[in-house]
Design goal:
555 residues, Rossmann fold, GMP Synthetase, Chain A, domain 3, 3 domains, 8-stranded mixed β-sheet, 5-stranded mixed β-sheet, 16 helices, 26 strands, 30% helix
Length: 555
């Protein structure tokens, strides 16, 4: 079986599709950029700059400090951190020590954190002294097999005046460290000569990152990503930029613990020798201020983030002239939202697609066009994709029909941590990753995601795609967000039901929306109801959360 389109003949990215990426470890990638960039700024944290040389010294001290505490090849090092300079030092420092990084969301409850600490066998965990983090980490330290905790201070990463203000005004947001030999201050960990023992890393065999995901089959699993997976994906993303020599200043508001930011913000920018303007979390006002202050050239984000920027009153006074490209991923970008953002800012906005299991990115629209709205563009270099039959993944989809999207490439994970059963479900017998997404490929090799296999609604024997109904809803001027689910029906098994939020200033009933919507749909697609809500559930990175809404509905 082969891909249904030959991207080597008509490829709209500014590079060859058919190319190889030599084995490369993450520490070697960082070292090359440090040698090239020297004291040029690598991080901007609330106005404080950290140069490449300075970051490299911090990374070396973290690596040596970990080695002094018995952390080495194959050990799992957890990061329970927001976007702070400590994250970058701990991430690359753990990898330089030969360890495997495990990312944990700062929003996890103690039970969620403990479950993944146990599953991954994490030995040591980095966190901050913030009250939103430290009490949770301490609870997990006492209730799990976790052996050590390293705790940093947010104030330590801020400029002098901001650091002083933080200590004075936000004392209630800082937890005191217990007198416990298992708990070490970050400053104590890095109090060494910064000369770690060299570690031999096999980029294609050694696991750099265990990244937890709902995966292609629903339950949280740890995707094992090698050094080569991650550096290849960073190089793939970098290669489709038509001007890699331009000043590179990336606004880092996506959380580093998420694979999208890990590749598109952190690794890709370090590879290119650019600067990351970091914010601890997404706040629309702070993000707009940072775009102007740092003259950001790129803004990776999710659709709800772009909507929040559009909704903020400071949008009109923000200077977007420095932005070369905004990259949307994580969820489908409504065409109306893209048009509104481009019109309001003048910035280019392209949509891409990826999975945790693909190190972050599979495909994207070209930065310099032609952009096809509603598609995920063409695959990255060296990325093979094809469509398989929705019932039998060992057969190609019928010609001209949508099928399940399957992927091969240097960025595809080794498999799931200690889950060979899940590997069997997530890979075809001949080694293609099953994405669980239903897609179509047009005559120009652009891919359009039609829906999720598991989200399809079976209405009296007919397959209904929620995304088709949602696309119609977004055409109504009052609709801001929309999710369509299947709900039980005595006669047809299940029927679609829509849940929406409204744009500010609009008042319209669910009955009126349903009356407007249903005549545009096929009889089997028509919704049983439209429920208007003040808000819809979202994931930790701001995507609309269909799974949470389904659980709430008991379906």
């Amino acid at each position: 079986m082969k891909s249904p389109y030959d991207w080597s003949t008509r490829y709209n990215h500014p590079t060859a599709w058919d190319q190889d990426f030599a084995p490369l470890s993450l520490p070697a990638m960082l070292a090359a950029s440090v040698a090239r960039k020297g004291d040029a700024p690598m991080l901007d944290f609330m106005g404080r700059h950290f140069g490449y040389n300075e970051v490299a010294r911090g990374v070396a001290r973290v690596a040596h400090g970990l080695q002094q505490r018995g952390i080495g090849k194959g050990t799992r090092v957890g990061l329970f951190l927001p976007n702070v300079p400590h994250y970058v030092a701990a991430y690359y420092g753990a990898l330089a020590a030969g360890a495997t990084v495990v990312n944990f969301s700062p929003l996890y409850t103690p039970a969620e954190l403990e479950a993944q600490v146990e599953d991954s066998g994490t030995d040591i965990l980095f966190t901050m002294s913030a009250t939103a983090l430290l009490p949770t980490a301490l609870e997990v330290l006492d209730g799990s097999s976790l052996k050590q905790l390293v705790v940093g201070s947010v104030a330590g990463g801020l400029p002098g005046a901001k650091s002083l203000l933080y200590r004075m005004l936000r004392r209630k947001e800082v937890s005191a460290l217990p007198d416990d030999p298992r708990v070490t201050r970050f400053s104590a960990l890095v109090d060494n000569d910064g000369n770690p023992d060299p570690v031999a890393i096999d980029p294609e065999a050694d696991i750099a990152l265990i990244q937890y995901t709902g995966g292609t089959t629903g339950t949280p699993k740890g995707a094992m990503l090698t050094h080569q997976n991650l550096t290849a994906n960073a190089r793939q993303v970098n290669s489709i930029d038509p001007d890699t020599q331009a000043d590179d200043r990336i606004l880092g508001v996506l959380p580093f613990f998420h694979v999208f930011a890990n590749t598109c913000v952190l690794n890709r920018t370090v590879l290119n020798g650019g600067m990351i303007a970091m914010l601890p979390r997404f706040d629309a006002k702070q993000a707009l201020q940072a775009i102007s202050r740092t003259r950001a050239t790129a803004l990776p984000g999710v659709p709800t983030m772009y909507q929040a920027l559009l909704d903020h009153p400071d949008l009109a006074k923000t200077d977007f002239s420095s932005l070369r490209v905004c990259i949307s991923g994580g969820a489908p970008m409504p065409a109306e939202l893209r048009e509104k953002f481009v019109a309001a800012t003048g910035a280019a906005l392209v949509e891409g697609y990826g999975l945790t299991e693909s190190s972050g990115v599979v495909s994207t629209n070209p930065y310099d066009g032609p952009v096809k709205a509603g598609t995920i563009g063409q695959p990255l270099p060296a990325t093979h994709i094809r469509l398989v039959d929705k019932e039998d993944p060992m057969r190609d989809a019928p010609a001209g029909e949508p099928g399940e999207l399957v992927v091969k490439g240097p960025q595809i994970m080794r498999g799931y941590w200690n889950r060979p059963d899940a590997d069997k479900d997530s890979f075809t017998e001949d080694g293609w990753l099953r994405t669980g997404d239903v897609a179509a490929i047009d005559e120009d090799g652009y891919v359009r995601i039609v829906d999720r296999l598991k989200d399809m609604i079976a209405v009296g024997g007919f397959k209904v795609y929620p995304s088709v109904i949602e696309a119609h809803l977004y055409e109504h001027p009052a609709v801001k967000e929309a999710i369509v689910l299947g709900v039980p029906d005595a006669y047809r098994g299940e029927v679609p039901k829509a849940f929406v939020t409204l744009e500010e200033g609009f008042t319209v009933s669910g009955e009126a929306l349903a009356a407007w919507l249903n005549p545009q749909l096929g009889k089997h697609e028509r919704v049983s109801a439209v429920e208007v809500r003040l808000n819809l559930p979202k994931t930790m990175i701001g995507k609309l959360d269909r799974k949470a809404l389904r659980a709430e509905q008991g379906s």
